[in-house]
């Protein structure tokens, strides 16, 4: 368990804040998933299906489809991915579709969470209801009083940030969040009116000298090289590479607000592009760097264990295979 999460759990059974989850996922989840997905460097297509079909119920439903029905629904999905209707799927079209799929399921999950959090079923989620769902009790920290325990103080800071994001999402200043506002709270990256708040929150945390930018030193946080070491540890080298090559687009040695946004907000674009390229590499039989319907149907099993169909899940979701999307 990542240390930030371990410390927070002392104060509640289910701590979940945007920053905490992103930090832990980046530090641990990605590496563990990679090892399971590519043991000894070999791709496990069955892992894709097992992990991401959505569970036993979805797998059972998938198995119930006849090959003919699978074929029919897959052809319908192919037609929708083909934005220019030229009969071929390009990297760009595949990537756009996968990103849309990610967003769709994130929104569906938020809608399901909304029902769980709305304890009194009045159509809104109050701050107290959010706390009860997350921590089994209402937590109320004094904004102006720091705690002596380092881990508890860390959790206090994260909880206060959650509260500020909750209040920002509450556009109508009502007693709670309606569904649209709850989605803005859970997925601020998907809602325009939350963008400035996300940037300001990140600057408050990382911009130590108050110049409106995040330098490499600020990006790395409290890290200082061990004076007895000849070089930085591998994880620091990785972080430096990400700063220089992924985030600092204008190569000026610091992150401006828009560059900062690409760091602190989940971005599925890179994942989608990787999967699109992987599919083209595996399915493109004539090396024209695009996929025809015939190539896809000939490699149907591979396509159904990819993110392009959310590992087959889209064949169960009428939203994707229905004639009107």
Automatic annotation (TrEMBL):
It holds the Pfam family EF-hand_7. Residues 69-104, 105-140, 194-229, 241-270 form the EF-hand domain. Keywords: Calcium, Metal-binding, Repeat, Signal. One of its GO terms (molecular function) is calcium ion binding. SMART domains: EFh (SM00054). CDD domains: EFh_CREC_RCN2. InterPro entries: EF-hand-dom_pair, EF_Hand_1_Ca_BS, EF_hand_dom. The keyword Metal-binding applies. It comes from the Eukaryota. One of its GO terms (cellular component) is endoplasmic reticulum. Residues 1-33 form the signal peptide. Not known. Binds calcium. Belongs to the CREC family. This is Reticulocalbin-2. It comes from Delphinapterus leucas.
């Amino acid at each position: 368990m990542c240390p930030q999460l371990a410390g927070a759990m002392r104060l509640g059974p289910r701590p979940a804040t945007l920053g905490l989850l992103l930090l832990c996922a980046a530090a641990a989840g990605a590496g563990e998933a990679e090892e399971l997905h590519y043991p000894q460097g070999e791709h496990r297509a069955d892992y894709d299906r097992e992990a991401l079909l959505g569970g036993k119920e979805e797998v059972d439903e998938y198995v119930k489809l006849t090959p003919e029905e699978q074929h029919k629904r897959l052809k319908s999905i192919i037609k929708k991915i083909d934005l220019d209707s030229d009969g071929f799927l390009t990297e760009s079209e595949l990537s756009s579709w996968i990103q849309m799929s990610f967003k769709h399921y994130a929104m569906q999950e938020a809608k399901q969470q909304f029902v769980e959090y709305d304890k009194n079923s009045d159509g809104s989620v109050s701050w107290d209801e959010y706390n009860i769902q997350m921590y089994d009790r209402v937590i109320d920290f004094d904004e102006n009083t720091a705690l002596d325990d380092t881990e508890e103080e860390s959790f206090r800071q994260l909880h206060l940030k959650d509260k500020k994001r909750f209040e920002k999402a509450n556009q109508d200043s009502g007693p709670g969040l309606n569904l649209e506002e709850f989605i803005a709270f859970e997925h601020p990256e998907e809602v325009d009116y939350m963008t400035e708040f996300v940037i300001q929150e990140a600057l408050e945390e990382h911009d130590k000298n108050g110049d409106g930018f995040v330098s490499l030193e600020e990006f790395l946080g409290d890290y200082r090289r061990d004076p007895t070491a000849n070089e930085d540890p591998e994880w620091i080298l990785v972080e430096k590479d990400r700063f220089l090559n992924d985030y600092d687009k204008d190569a000026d040695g610091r992150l401006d607000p828009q560059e900062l946004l690409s760091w602190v907000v989940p971005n599925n674009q890179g994942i989608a592009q990787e999967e699109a390229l992987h599919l083209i590499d595996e399915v493109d039989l004539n090396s024209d760097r695009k996929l025809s319907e015939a190539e896809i149907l000939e490699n149907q099993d591979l396509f159904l264990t990819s993110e392009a169909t959310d590992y087959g899940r889209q064949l169960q979701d009428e939203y994707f295979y229905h004639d009107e999307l």
